[in-house]
Amino acid sequence: xxxxxxxxxxxxxxxxxxxxxxxxxxxxxxxxxxxxxxxxxxxxxxxxxxxxxxxxxxxxxxxxxxxxxxxxxxxxxxxxxxxxxxxxxxxxxxxxxxxxxxxxxxxxxxxxxxxxxxxxxxxxxxxxxxxxxxxxxxxxxxxxxxxxxxxxxxxxxxxxxxxxxxxxxxxxxxxxxxxxxx
Length: 182
What we know:
Elements: E1 5-9, H1 18-33, E2 37-40, H2 46-57, E3 62-67, E4 82-86, H3 89-99, E5 102-105, H4 110-124, E6 132-135, H5 142-153, H6 159-162, E7 166-168, H7 171-178
Helix pairs in contact: 1-2
């Protein structure tokens, strides 16, 4: 399967350490430079906004999907290639899923975790076979990996599920998967 579009799940907080914001910019730039469309949550804040703005600055195509429930809570991006406003978080996640050929997960919080577990669960249920890449930048996802390894050790998840996503520690590893060079 040729990957033409990638969905980014990541945090929307501007209060995070700046090195996370800088890495999100690198991800957005790398996606644009690879000629991939970027799909994301439509915000202009945190890692979301940083990656989108970097992709746009690199002449990339960026699709934002913003739910009405976040209007007035998160800054909505106004300068995207395509911009969708949807009524619910569920509709947002579905459209992001439908428009994406792959997923890359950057550091984030509860919303990022929700999105990540949902696409993994959908893959378990044979709803898709899209690559899911957990970018463990700066060891951010180490505890997540530890927690999910506990799922496997206690047989709450089958070992097959572990092959449904890939944990990488560098942007180069993530891009190699997305561009088919791995």
